[in-house]
Design goal:
Helix content: 40-55%
Number of strands: 5
Distance between the termini: 19 Å
Radius of gyration: 14 Å
Number of helices: 6
Strand content: 5-15%
Largest sheet: 5 strands, parallel
Structural class: alpha/beta
Shape: globular
Length: 125
């Protein structure tokens, strides 16, 4: 891993927006913070999201990079397929894991399923 680079899983995003001091401290010295477009969709699709939550999330998005999924990124697509098949992750989780791997970033997540992905550095909280 080069520097302090992190991809945040959806549960980490929620925890940060709720003020989780452990995660905020972890990310203070980050060189780069990204979230998957999958996490953006998962967060915004939550049915009980208030308008205040949406506004807070929009402010949060200004401070991180959204990692897109595009059909022309053959390397990422292959990595997603590899992770999905090798580690039997749900497809959204395979996308998030592959994005962290491709961006040489640690994945910050409370989901222990990611621990089985040996090619990925996972920071559980």
């Amino acid at each position: 891993m080069s520097g302090n680079r992190y991809v945040l899983d959806t549960n980490a995003i929620v925890a940060i927006l709720q003020g989780n001091s452990q995660l905020i401290q972890l990310l203070q010295d980050a060189n780069w913070i990204g979230i998957s477009v999958v996490s953006q969709i998962e967060f915004l699709a939550f049915s009980e999201l208030s308008q205040d939550d949406r506004q807070l999330f929009q402010m949060f998005l200004q401070r991180v990079e959204i990692v897109d999924l595009v059909a022309s990124d053959a390397v990422l697509i292959e990595k997603i397929i590899e992770v999905r098949l090798q580690y039997k992750l749900k497809l959204p989780d395979a996308v998030i894991a592959a994005m962290a791997i491709q961006n040489s970033a640690s994945l910050v997540s409370a989901d222990h399923e990611f621990a089985k992905v040996t090619m990925l550095t996972v920071i559980n909280w």
